[in-house]
Design a protein that fits this description.
The structure is a homodimer. The first copy, chain A, is α/β, with parallel strands linked by helices. The first copy, chain A, has 2 domains: 10-251, TIM Barrel (Alpha-Beta Barrel), CATH 3.20.20.20; 259-351, Sulfite Reductase Hemoprotein, domain 1 (2-Layer Sandwich), CATH 3.30.413. Helices cover 43% and strands 20% of the residues of chain A. Chain A contains 12 helices and 15 strands. Chain A has an 8-stranded parallel β-sheet with strand order 8-7-6-5-4-3-10-9. In chain A, helix 8 (206-222) packs parallel to helix 9 (238-251). The first copy, chain A, starts with 9 loop residues before the first strand and ends with a helix. The model of chain A has no long low-confidence stretch (mean pLDDT 93).
Chain lengths: 352, 352
């Protein structure tokens, strides 16, 4: 498991962020927020998919006024996403569990002051959500839309909030490309201990958004950076959660669920490995116990991988071995291997 | 663009690896290599998908003897993948463009010596392909299957080849998890200048293999590490190439093709962005010119992103702007935007 950089802990509704809290997964609805029924339905879908915190856009007063009805029908913590108009933030702050402001477009600092006061009164945190595409003019002019510009904006706004006695803060520094995103988070991390909300913004459709987010968020998670995260995919809900959870698992930042090691298949293979692995993947989806399993098609790495796996199959010609913690527990014909493997996995999941 | 760490340049058939050569993409067939027709068919599919170098497994002498017939029917550089039996390497070396050996399982060093001699005579390189799951016993015992153990094995074998006057080498250090893979490549990089073949091994089926490879290879590419790469996906051919190319593009290691920035859609949106982006993605697939485009659903980041985009759409309510290099070139109704956008992209692609 990766050693996380220790951050201050804050609370968004019932979810802790930072400190020793698990890295939480967020998403955002794409319904009109004023359409309460549609928004509640999307939030419930996200909740079911494993989302920890949900955010909704609040572009107009009608949307802000719908938040109370939404909040009453959901149990996920609710974040209001505010741009341009501080009055929307003041209205939202009466109801939601966190306010996200984009400091680059709220305008006069006296308005931010009012937002801070409203959040202070209800003890809800503020996310300073810096986006490279919408920096304050002063930082855009001085640094361009660079990592340095994003960090300068974040630091300026952190100080502004701190000077008002407010430190219930989390920070995001999103750019639409991986390099700037990673650079910005790395640059700001040593400068304070506020929890970070990770994300690559406007990452595109499913395929590229998955890859951009995996590279960007994965790189940071490997360094112990990141306390909560969102994967942005154009037009998807559940998929954002699935990808986010997979990035956590595959980077080693979370151990929950099965890690399936399987070889890519090559000319050495004597068995129908692809069917076996697909079968195993489908039948173990529900398991949350942190198990490492390997399903290998030939002897080259099978025994080495099995030594570190909780449960393993090493296929040979027409038959193979089931191994538990590196020990052979059965030598079976090919068609019996998956059944035995799964029963061993289920047994270990129960025990763990 | 990322600054790559400068490496020695080698040649695999007609493909240069290392130095200032573009990062090449490799894959591997899963047919029985002795089945010449099936193997040639898979190699042609990979070639068509954009693969630069192909590798085949050579588990038995029948496979080694099939290499000549395969080589005659393909134009991609051919690499023979050898484990355990050095005689297979000697036979393969008569025909192929590169030999991959797993030093952990070739056995006595006198046998490696014979392989080196065979490669020297035909001026073909050797990939020292270290796998965490099959280290030499001495390193496995001393370090376990750790990054340190992988690096110790690589260094030992590099020195062995160098002492025989052989330096036509590339190196891979693959583990089945991202953390060890990244750690091993990082550890070895400052110690020599041989080109690196990147890969996370046994990464599993499509979804997780994509994410593991994106995290592992992306993290290294962002640091300028990596000269050639393979994405391993259980039971896939073309998909390995598509994912590898996307990792290169999305990490910023390659600029080829369109980079589409599109927002995830939220309650602010007034247009059918998902259809527009899908349409644009499908209709610009063939373009190899390195263009940045953005398709944004509201004003929050649209203008900021458009300023850095070659071509952009900023949607509003019922209409929107087409922008070129930050300048508005047209204000059109919603249904006209994509057409104009694509004609601008095609024009710029022609000019570039």
């Amino acid at each position: 498991m990766i050693q996380r950089i220790k951050t201050k802990q804050i609370r968004v509704g019932g979810v802790l962020i930072g400190g020793d809290a698990p890295i939480s997964v967020q998403s955002m609805t794409y319904s009109k927020t004023r359409d309460v029924a549609a928004t509640v339905e999307q939030i419930k879908r996200l909740h079911f998919a494993g989302c920890d915190i949900v955010r909704v856009a609040v572009p107009e007063m009608e949307d802000a006024l719908a938040l109370r009805a939404i909040k009453e029908q959901i149990s996920l913590p609710l974040v209001a996403d505010i741009h341009f108009n501080y009055r929307l933030a003041l209205e939202a702050a009466k109801v939601v569990d966190c306010i996200r402001i984009n400091p680059g477009n709220i305008g006069e600092k006296s308005r931010v002051k009012d937002i801070v006061k409203a959040c202070q009164e209800r003890h809800i945190p503020i996310r300073i959500g810096v986006n490279a595409g919408s920096l304050e003019k002063i930082f855009d002019t001085r640094y361009g839309q660079s990592a340095e510009g994003m960090v300068a904006s974040a630091e300026y706004n952190i100080k502004f909030l701190e000077d008002l006695g407010f430190s219930d803060i989390k920070i995001s520094l999103k750019a639409s490309d991986v390099e700037r995103t990673v650079a910005a988070y790395r640059l700001l991390r040593p400068k304070n201990s506020y929890p970070f909300h990770l994300g690559v913004t406007e990452a595109g459709t499913k395929f590229h958004a998955t890859i951009k987010s995996a590279i960007g968020l994965g790189t940071l998670l490997l360094e112990g950076i990141g306390d909560t995260m969102r994967v942005s995919i154009t037009g998807e809900l559940e998929e954002e959660i699935t990808v986010a959870r997979a990035i956590l698992k595959d980077s080693g930042a979370s151990s929950e669920g099965l890690n399936i090691i399987s070889c890519p298949t090559c000319g050495r293979i004597e068995a129908d490995l692809v069917s076996a692995v697909s079968d195993i993947e489908a039948r173990t989806k529900h398991i949350t116990a942190p198990l490492n399993v390997s399903v290998m098609g030939c002897v080259v790495n099978a025994i080495g991988e099995a030594a570190h796996a909780d449960v393993a199959i090493a296929y040979g010609k027409g038959s193979g071995l089931v191994m538990v913690k590196g020990d052979v527990v059965a030598k079976l014909s090919e068609h019996e291997l998956v059944e035995r493997f799964i029963s061993e996995v289920e047994r270990m999941a129960k025990e763990s």
